[in-house]
Design a protein that fits this description.
With 175 residues, the protein is mainly α. The protein has a single domain, classed as Butyryl-CoA Dehydrogenase, subunit A, domain 3 (Up-down Bundle), CATH 1.20.140. It is 73% helix and 0% strand. The protein has ten helices and no strands. The protein is globular, with a radius of gyration of 18 Å. The relative contact order is 0.12.
Length: 175
């Protein structure tokens, strides 16, 4: 059995990428990653080894993200924020500026590119389960087997949902 330090070293980046794909905010993803590992330490006695550790950690991370969302206050839609920025004379602001994202790493820059290109919006429009499968695969780096385990389905189910979701996003991006 791995020590908690080894588990953190090995899986923290995967959990962080998954949470970043959900939240789109590096600081939120970082905080929730820490909270995920804190919760994992507290619940380690309930980990029975029937699933991969990444599957278990991503399930905890997803619950932490849902808790985070429940605690957030409603925010103004992005188009209202953009109109306010234009009224203030800041019409040259990028979507990343409005969202409060600053490129800190290659990963953050890639996320910013996805946001500006609208790919994440197209993924969000898919709805569950396609959205979650794509996010777990692309940002969480999980295998199809791990995705199936996380969602209580089979590996083949995860493959089919991923392919169909990817095709929908590709077709929408070509429009």
């Amino acid at each position: 059995m791995l020590s908690i330090e080894e588990v953190y070293d090995r899986y923290a980046k995967t959990v962080y990428r998954y949470l970043l794909s959900l939240s789109r905010k590096p600081d939120v993803a970082e905080d929730l990653t820490q909270e995920t590992f804190y919760r994992a330490i507290r619940a380690i006695s309930r980990f029975d080894g029937n699933v991969q550790i990444t599957t278990w950690l991503c399930a905890i991370a997803k619950n932490q993200y849902r808790n985070y969302l429940r605690k957030q206050k409603p925010v103004a839609p992005l188009d209202i924020v953009r109109e306010d920025a234009e009224a203030d004379g800041n019409e040259d602001m990028t979507l990343a500026d409005i969202a409060g994202i600053t490129a800190k790493s290659a990963e953050d820059e890639a996320m910013q590119g996805f946001i500006e290109s609208g790919i994440l919006e197209k993924i969000d429009e898919l709805g569950d389960p396609s959205r979650e499968v794509l996010l777990l695969r692309i940002y969480g780096g999980l295998s199809f087997r791990e995705i199936g385990e996380t969602m209580g389905r089979t590996e083949n189910w995860a493959r089919v949902i991923y392919f169909r979701g990817k095709e929908k996003v590709r077709k929408e991006a070509q429009r």
